[in-house]
């Protein structure tokens, strides 16, 4: 009857485990002997970063180097039938059946030594009925292939034995012997062996030591429970005839407390590559959590919503990583990582002021000094593969372990403009590179954007120049316009790995980086690399492969690609953004770089009050993004200096130079961006962005064709010349001001004004913005050797008075028709007019729509405003 029950039970266990992969003997051996090791982390090319710090300290020793008393004590205490069963006993099988049928009794008390060894070394710590069934199955398989002494040795090296005198958790009898009694396992006497053998049942309860929380062990106030447990072990040994009555009595009366080691302080270990260590550990943990969740038949998306369940799986993954010998391989190039971080360290004192204040530690409640330097987060991406080649996590790991490249979310400032506004506009045929955008005082409900330094350009600005000089008002006008035309920027952004809320997209300030959630440096670098990759976004990654202790690959990264923009749109954006580094807000990069920037394009970004500063630059091979700013802990609101754009560009250039010196092939700076079929060049009027033609002015028809340039389109084409409706976001009074100035009147068109009070000139504000800097050597001159991406247009400053030769319909030459007026301020000055800009002079000769009407503008507003550069 018993044999029948056992047979039925084994059949039931077999049914539960029929989906379990059967491990080979070698795989089982690798797992069983994987003790006193932890996960190893690697750079690319098999260069080791570090082994994870173990939760347990210990050292494996063979059975021959363990006291005979210890072996007998463990068997008598944990599994007196160890040498007689085949890995399991019938009650274990029945327990699994009852647990499955009733849903209760899933605890694993009474497991054999073989089962305990399997559980510690081959399974997770969960206590489900299915895991119990797998445990039984594997225990029988282990018993079949390994001797009892081999199994016992594996158990004694893998079991945990509480804390040692330094407060460290210990694994294996050798570490227990040394940590408790300052001797080797082979030299333990009977009383000491019995004490150690009693620990596995409840290590934290029976150990005599605890920790003071500062890597220093100390005696418990009361450790009598451990001594009583020792006596229980001695009795079981005597009961099993493993020791004599005399030995039992002598060991029971032995003064064990005097044998315990005195408490001491544990040595601390310095992690050389702290940011890499933490990053790879966190990424590997997430990968293992997903694997554990999948193995349990659950969805990771559901588990993430349950914090307690997610914590449970995270703890399981942590235990695996810190106590088993996994191998985590990364994409990080060690030489590039060192090169970039050396530059960050050498330049960090130039980033800005470090602020030191007294504050209260929220955990301890103690008053502490808090020093906050300007932080840097940088990411170097391989455009084609999405591999993270290198990064800078911060300027001082000891001071702040926050990884500012991967996990800090910040306002992207104007660096988001090409992604969220200009590329979608080009993709949908709404603009060309020379389409005019209005840069005049405007207001959307309660939102009144301005350009950098609270300035307004008071003129029409091309889409190209808007990106080059990072003007805000034209960008807001364009974003508002594409929304009114049904263009949904979110579908492009999400494909590039940036998910914002509907509320954020509904606010016009989002095109200036006004986001409540923020983005990481990795996200911005990855999204920006889409343009270099001809409109295809490749998901970034840093962990390439994970192997388990047996060497089996349990994770290998699979590349994920998405077509976001067409090749044509990407080319036009690259063409426009090349001007940013040749003559725009990042022109300093062209002469600070030690490599050719003929094929470099990029974008700057600054958030409100200089809270954040960005520069992202791409070549054919790589994208390098650099962010600087303060953490602003303890509710501080420190801002960067007004020249932070210059500072960040120099840091970017230093890092890029170091990368180029280390691995010039990775950057591929000489690879030109070839113009794809489908990009059409149109000859347009430079002032209006339209086709050349005629316009009626003061009762005459005048030809407008003296100054032309090239506008690039993917879809659509430039419109015909007209008096109005050629600039996005323009009002009739803006056209009126423009045409009056075009035909010679001095009326304030193109005069930079400032909203609010300032003592700075327009040139000073422009310098802070990083614009207009063409002095110094630039190795990105426009010549026959330049890449096709090189900007072909030139930008001239708009003067307050203009002389234009126009041919009227009757063939006579007219110069500046209409009477001249006196404009407020000069073309080179900055006029502060409070909340309004006042223009004086006779405008009676102008014709057009009534003042206040808007072209292509709908309603909208923003709760967050960010400035340009």
Automatic annotation (TrEMBL):
One of its GO terms (cellular component) is outer membrane-bounded periplasmic space. The keyword Transmembrane helix applies. Residues 48-237 form the Glycosyl transferase family domain. InterPro entries: Beta-lactam/transpept-like, Glyco_trans_51, Glycosyltr_51/Transpeptidase, Lysozyme-like_dom_sf, PBP_transglycosylase, PCN-bd_Tpept. Keywords: Carboxypeptidase, Cell membrane, Cell shape, Cell wall biogenesis/degradation, Glycosyltransferase, Hydrolase, Membrane, Multifunctional enzyme, Peptidoglycan synthesis, Protease, Transferase, Transmembrane, Transmembrane helix. One of its GO terms (molecular function) is serine-type D-Ala-D-Ala carboxypeptidase activity. Residues 379-632 form the Penicillin-binding protein transpeptidase domain. Transmembrane segments: none annotated. Residues 762-869 are annotated as: Disordered. PANTHER family: BINDING PROTEIN TRANSPEPTIDASE, PUTATIVE-RELATED (PTHR32282), PENICILLIN-BINDING PROTEIN 2A (PTHR32282:SF32). This is Bifunctional glycosyltransferase transpeptidase penicillin-binding protein 1B. It comes from Companilactobacillus nodensis DSM 19682 = JCM 14932 = NBRC 107160.
């Amino acid at each position: 009857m018993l044999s029948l029950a056992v047979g039925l039970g084994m059949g039931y266990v077999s049914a539960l485990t029929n989906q379990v992969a059967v491990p080979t003997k070698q795989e089982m051996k690798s797992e069983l002997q994987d003790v006193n090791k932890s996960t190893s982390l690697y750079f690319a090319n098999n260069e080791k970063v570090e082994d994870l710090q173990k939760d347990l300290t210990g050292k494996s020793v063979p059975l021959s180097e363990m006291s005979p008393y210890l072996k007998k004590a463990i068997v008598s205490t944990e599994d007196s039938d160890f040498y007689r069963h085949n890995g399991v006993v019938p009650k274990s099988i029945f327990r699994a059946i009852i647990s499955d049928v009733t849903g209760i009794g899933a605890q694993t008390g009474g497991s054999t030594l073989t089962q305990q060894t399997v559980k510690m070394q081959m399974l997770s710590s969960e206590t489900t009925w299915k895991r119990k069934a797998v445990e039984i199955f594997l225990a029988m398989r282990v018993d079949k292939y390994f001797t009892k002494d081999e199994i016992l040795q594996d158990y004694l090296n893998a079991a945990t034995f509480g804390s040692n005198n330094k407060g460290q958790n210990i694994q294996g009898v050798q570490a227990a012997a040394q940590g408790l009694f300052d001797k080797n396992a082979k030299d333990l006497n009977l009383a000491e062996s019995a004490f150690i053998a009693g620990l596995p049942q409840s290590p934290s309860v029976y150990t005599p030591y605890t920790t003071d929380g500062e890597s220093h062990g100390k005696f418990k106030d009361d450790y009598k429970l451990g001594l009583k447990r020792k006596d229980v072990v001695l009795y079981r040994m005597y009961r099993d005839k493993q020791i004599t009555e005399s030995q039992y009595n002598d060991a029971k009366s032995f003064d064990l407390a005097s044998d315990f080691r005195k408490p001491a302080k544990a040595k601390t270990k310095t992690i050389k590559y702290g940011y890499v260590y933490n990053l790879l550990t966190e990424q590997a943990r997430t990968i293992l959590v997903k694997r554990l969740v999948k193995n349990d038949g659950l969805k990771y998306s559901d588990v993430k919503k349950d914090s307690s369940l997610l914590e449970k799986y995270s703890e399981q993954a942590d235990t695996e990583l810190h106590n088993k010998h996994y191998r985590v391989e990364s994409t990080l190039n060690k030489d590039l990582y060192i090169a970039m971080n050396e530059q960050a360290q050498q330049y960090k004192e130039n980033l800005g002021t470090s602020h030191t204040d007294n504050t209260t530690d929220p955990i301890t409640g103690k008053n502490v000094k808090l020093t906050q330097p300007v932080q840097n987060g940088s990411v170097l991406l391989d455009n084609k593969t999405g591999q993270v080649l290198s990064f800078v996590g911060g300027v001082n790991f000891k001071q702040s372990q926050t990884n500012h490249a991967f996990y800090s979310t910040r306002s992207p400032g104007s660096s988001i403009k090409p992604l969220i506004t200009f590329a979608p506009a080009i993709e949908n045929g709404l603009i060309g590179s020379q389409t005019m955008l209005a840069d005049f005082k405007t207001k959307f409900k309660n939102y009144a954007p301005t350009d950098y330094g609270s300035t307004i350009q008071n003129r029409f600005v091309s889409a190209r120049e808007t990106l080059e000089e990072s003007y805000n008002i034209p960008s807001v006008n364009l974003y508002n316009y594409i929304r009114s035309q049904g263009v949904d920027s979110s579908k492009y952004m999400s494909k590039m790995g940036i998910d914002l809320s509907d509320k954020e997209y509904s606010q016009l300030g989002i095109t200036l980086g006004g986001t409540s959630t923020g983005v990481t440096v990795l996200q911005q670098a990855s999204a920006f690399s889409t343009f270099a990759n001809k409109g295809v976004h490749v998901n970034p990654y840093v962990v390439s492969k994970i192997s388990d202790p047996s060497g089996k690959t349990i994770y290998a990264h699979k590349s994920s690609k998405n077509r976001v923009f067409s090749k044509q749109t990407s080319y036009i954006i690259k063409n426009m953004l090349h001007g940013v580094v040749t003559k725009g807000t990042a022109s300093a990069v062209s002469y600070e770089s030690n490599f050719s920037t003929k094929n470099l394009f990029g974008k700057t970004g600054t958030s409100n009050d200089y809270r954040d500063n960005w520069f992202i630059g791409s070549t054919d091979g790589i994208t390098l993004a650099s962010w600087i700013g303060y953490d602003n802990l303890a509710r501080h609101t420190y801002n960067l200096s007004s020249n932070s754009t210059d500072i960040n560009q120099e840091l970017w250039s230093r890092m890029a130079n170091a990368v180029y010196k280390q691995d010039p092939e990775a950057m591929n700076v000489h690879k030109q961006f070839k113009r794809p079929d489908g990009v059409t060049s149109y000859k347009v009027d430079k002032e209006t962005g339209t086709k050349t033609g005629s316009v009626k002015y003061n009762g005459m028809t005048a030809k407008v064709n003296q100054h032309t340039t090239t506008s690039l389109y993917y879809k659509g084409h430039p419109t015909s010349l007209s008096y109005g409706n050629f600039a996005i976001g323009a009002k009739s009074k803006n056209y009126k001001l423009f045409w009056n100035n075009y035909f010679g009147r001095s009326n304030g068109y193109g005069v930079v004004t400032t909203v609010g009070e300032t003592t700075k000139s327009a040139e000073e504000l422009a310098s802070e913005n990083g614009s207009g800097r063409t002095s110094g050597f630039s190795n990105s001159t426009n010549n026959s050797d330049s890449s096709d991406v090189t900007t072909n247009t030139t930008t001239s400053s708009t003067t307050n008075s203009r002389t234009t030769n126009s041919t009227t319909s009757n063939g006579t030459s007219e110069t500046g028709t209409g009477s001249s007026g006196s404009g407020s301020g000069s073309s080179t000055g900055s006029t502060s007019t409070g909340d309004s800009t006042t223009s004086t002079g006779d405008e009676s000769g102008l014709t057009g729509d009534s003042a206040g009407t808007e072209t292509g503008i709908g309603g909208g507003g923003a709760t967050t405003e960010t400035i340009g550069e």
